[in-house]
């Protein structure tokens, strides 16, 4: 097989020659080698669904992937917006897909929705941060890192028929520089064809006039230029979701059954579901992943690094300046550390002083108390002594009186007994 | 010439049935999308060839890529080579085949092993490889990463002379200096001076010595378990054939009614692409048709990561010791504070806690006393 290979031969003097070659070298298998590796590793895809409670996010995902992912109905009474990620392992043919669906629970329910967008932005940033941290590690394993960054945000617009809601505009504006957004009109079976046409135009013009950058299906690759540019004109997609099967004609199709007819999910004249599925899964899934990594993530990374004080060098300037920046940063960091340490030491010393003072105070109190008690004790003792003395005094005086009385009695007795005593004496004589 | 190594395409075949199948979601087209994008983006590959002069390196490269990369080059004579130092010369070519673009860089190392004293003659080579790693590291750590050029060396073909009995000291030293920086693929050069038996003995000998000296040459990855038996058998044969005994040729000769690349001898014609003559086809299949991407992956995931980790660790330890800025490689600050500071903070925390406890105890005691 004669293949004409065009070769440009680059020498130091930049001369170009084209040579003719005979033969098949074989590096045309390179894409196959790459694909083989990618397939054996498996792919991952992360979808974020943003929309009001009950607008049909879970149903649409179920319809897209033709399975029922378990999820509980969300309540309208949550205090703030939460993000609920769930990961599933899917397989089709020989392709393994790790799919993560992130649902925004409670979006649009609060009375004050000023902060509603924050949890969403935080979640997206956190996934970027995790990836950045992994990239900055010393020992890193990027080739088997589970990429949790959001590749696509499906924004569900309520089918009012008029225009975007203010919350929609605010939220999308906050998200458009962080994630690929595809807006979809949910529950499109409440809008008629003519209303839908006007609605789509209004929405797109509002987005454009407010500078919201939604995801454009890429048109550089010749293989998909035509289909992508056609689809770009159909945005936002008006979708309907259903996992229930209804008999239409002689086939069972997914549809919603109304008294007035059945709305078929896969009927392109009923809604744009097929278009969404085609664009999202069958044609541009790889581009979505690439844009997330090459554009949104790089922007996040650049901002983060600049925040940390890193400046990029232009090609001519000193390549060492980045290192100098690092040095300064490190010095700052050390100074900060020292300051913190000093603070802590100060705090410690203060605390010790405080504690000492407290202890001293307590000691003094104790001492006082002790003194008080001693005095009391002393007083009591004195009282008692006093009493004892009094008692003794009394006793003494009592004794004296007793003695006096006894003496008197004795004397009296003596005088009485002397006479009879004489008689005795006489008797004896 | 068709390749005898069948490459199993991983792209799923969509039959009409599967399209009608109700369960078909569609993400099975992912491999197609990846394929398309990679073709659009193009590929790049850097191949280094090393070995003494006259081993047939240039001829082999020409034979591999079916071109003449080395037109008009000058060869030095022996006298000029006495004190020859090793140079690094890069040739970059853009080639395209069936819509697949490849930016191929061949890194030549003329002068290797040619001088009389070849002490450390591989140093310029290891320095070059490290430089490419460093450049990539710097680019990767920068703020604007849109157009990073990957000049890292993905594979090094090392040419072992067939004239000896196995590996010589310079061969061992060279491969050991490089085996943790680049994928080393040893080859037996100019294999047309060896009979099949001699080749087998030499290969066994070399494999033994590689094992003995602990040289980590490039290992073919294991075959996927879902490949069929024929493929697995071929894979096994490939692995048992290393190191490949190769012959190259710049000339086309007539053999068996066909025009082939070969070498014309009085005693016969050696055909480069004849598998019973030499392992050239095996090498080409391995290097280009089946493992080119894996060589790149191993370079990125293993060799480069090792370099980067080592680099960062060296840098942080140096900077921790003293405040001199010697290492030119910029890295990002560690997100965790010094281990020492952390310890200090912990100690202080504990002291505070203890004091707090003592205070509490005293308070309690006084309470009791009051009562």
TrEMBL record, chain A:
Keyword Coiled coil: yes
Segments forming domain Septin-type G: 41-307
UniProt KW keywords: Coiled coil, GTP-binding, Nucleotide-binding
InterPro entries per record: G_SEPTIN_dom, P-loop_NTPase, Septin
Native species: Gadus morhua
Pfam families given in the database record: Septin
Residues making up the signal peptide according to the UniProt record: none
UniProt keyword Glycosyltransferase, yes or no: no
Gene (UniProt): LOC115552323
Protein name as catalogued: Septin
Family, as annotated: Belongs to the TRAFAC class TrmE-Era-EngA-EngB-Septin-like GTPase superfamily. Septin GTPase family.
Source organism, top-level taxon: Eukaryota
Automatic annotation (TrEMBL), chain B:
Protein name as catalogued: Septin
Listed PROSITE patterns: G_SEPTIN
Site-annotated residues for Important for dimerization: 163
Location of the Septin-type G domain: 41-314
Gene: SEPTIN5
Domain of life: Eukaryota
CDD domains documented for this protein: CDC_Septin (cd01850)
Molecular-function GO term, any one: GTP binding
An example Gene Ontology biological process: cell division
Record keywords, A-Z: GTP-binding, Nucleotide-binding
């Amino acid at each position: 097989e004669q293949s004409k290979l065009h070769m440009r031969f680059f020498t130091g003097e930049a001369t170009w020659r084209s040579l003719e070659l005979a033969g098949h070298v074989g590096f045309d298998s390179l894409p196959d080698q790459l694909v083989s590796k990618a397939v054996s590793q498996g792919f991952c895809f992360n979808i974020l669904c943003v929309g009001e409670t009950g607008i049909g996010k879970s149903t649409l995902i179920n319809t897209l992937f033709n399975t029922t992912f378990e999820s509980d109905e969300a309540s309208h009474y949550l205090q703030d917006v939460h993000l609920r990620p769930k990961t599933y392992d899917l397989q089709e043919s020989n392709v393994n897909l790790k799919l993560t669906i992130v649902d925004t629970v409670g979006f649009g329910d609060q009375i004050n929705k000023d902060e509603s967008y924050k949890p969403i932005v935080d979640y997206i940033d956190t996934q970027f941060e995790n990836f950045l941290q992994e990239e900055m590690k010393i020992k890193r394993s990027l080739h088997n890192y589970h990429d949790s960054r959001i590749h696509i945000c499906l924004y569900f617009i309520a089918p009012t028929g008029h225009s975007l809601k203010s919350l929609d505009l605010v939220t999308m504006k906050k998200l458009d520089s962080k994630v690929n957004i595809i807006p979809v009109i949910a529950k499109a079976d409440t809008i008629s064809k003519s209303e839908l046409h006007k609605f789509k135009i209004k929405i797109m013009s509002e987005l454009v006039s407010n500078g919201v950058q939604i995801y454009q299906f890429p048109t550089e690759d010749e293989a998909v230029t035509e289909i992508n540019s056609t689809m770009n004109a159909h945005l936002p997609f008006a979708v309907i979701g259903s996992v229930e099967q209804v008999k239409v004609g002689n086939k069972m199709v997914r549809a919603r059954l109304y008294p007035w007819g059945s709305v078929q999910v896969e009927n392109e004249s009923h809604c744009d579901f097929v278009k969404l599925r085609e664009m999202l899964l069958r044609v541009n899934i790889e581009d979505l992943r690439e844009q997330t990594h090459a554009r949104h993530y790089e922007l996040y990374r650049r901002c983060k690094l600049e925040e940390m004080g890193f400046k990029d060098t232009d090609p001519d300037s000193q390549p060492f300046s980045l290192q100098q920046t690092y040095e300064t940063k490190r010095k700052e960091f050390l100074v900060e550390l020292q300051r913190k340490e000093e603070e802590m030491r100060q705090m410690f010393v203060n605390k010790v002083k405080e504690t000492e003072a407290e202890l001293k105070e307590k000691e003094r109190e104790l001492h006082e108390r002790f003194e008080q008690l001693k005095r009391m004790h002393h007083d009591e003792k004195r009282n008692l002594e006093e009493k004892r003395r009094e008692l003794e005094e009394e006793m003494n005086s009592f004794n004296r009186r007793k003695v006096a009385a006894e003496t008197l009695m004795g004397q009296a007795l003596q005088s009485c007994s002397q006479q009879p005593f004489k008689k005795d004496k006489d008797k004896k004589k | 010439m068709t390749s005898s190594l069948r490459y199993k395409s991983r792209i799923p075949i969509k039959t009409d049935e599967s399209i009608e199948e109700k369960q078909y979601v569609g993400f099975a087209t992912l491999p197609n999308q990846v394929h398309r994008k990679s073709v659009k983006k193009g590929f790049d590959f850097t191949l280094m060839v090393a070995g003494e002069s006259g081993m047939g390196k240039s001829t082999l490269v020409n034979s591999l890529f079916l071109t003449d990369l080395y037109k008009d080059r000058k060869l030095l004579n022996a006298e000029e080579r006495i004190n020859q130092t090793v140079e690094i010369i890069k040739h970059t070519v853009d080639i395209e085949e069936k819509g697949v673009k490849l930016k191929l860089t061949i890194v030549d190392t003329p002068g290797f092993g040619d001088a009389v004293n070849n002490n450390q003659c591989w140093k310029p080579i290891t320095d070059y490889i490290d430089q490419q790693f460093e450049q990539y590291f710097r680019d990767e750590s920068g703020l604007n990463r849109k157009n990073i050029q990957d000049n890292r060396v993905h594979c090094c073909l090392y040419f072992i002379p067939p004239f000896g009995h196995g590996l010589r000291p310079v061969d061992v030293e060279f491969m050991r200096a490089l085996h943790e920086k680049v994928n080393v693929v040893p080859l037996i050069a100019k294999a047309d001076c060896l009979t099949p038996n001699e080749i087998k003995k030499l290969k066994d000998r070399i494999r033994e010595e590689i094992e003995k000296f602990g040289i980590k040459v490039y290992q073919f990855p294991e075959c996927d378990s879902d490949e069929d038996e024929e493929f697995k058998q071929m894979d096994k044969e490939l692995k048992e054939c290393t190191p490949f005994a190769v012959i190259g040729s710049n000339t086309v000769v007539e053999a068996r009614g066909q025009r082939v690349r070969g070498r014309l001898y009085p005693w016969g014609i050696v055909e480069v692409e004849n598998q019973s003559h030499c392992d050239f086809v095996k090498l080409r299949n391995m290097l280009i048709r089946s493992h080119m991407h894996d060589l790149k992956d191993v370079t990125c995931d293993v060799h480069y990561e090792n370099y980067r980790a080592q680099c960062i660790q060296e840098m942080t330890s140096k900077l921790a010791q003293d405040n001199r800025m010697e290492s030119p490689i910029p890295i990002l600050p560690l997100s965790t504070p010094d281990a020492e500071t952390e310890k200090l903070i912990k100690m202080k925390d504990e002291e505070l806690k203890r004091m707090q406890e003592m205070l509490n105890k005293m308070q309690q005691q006084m309470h009791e006393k009051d009562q």
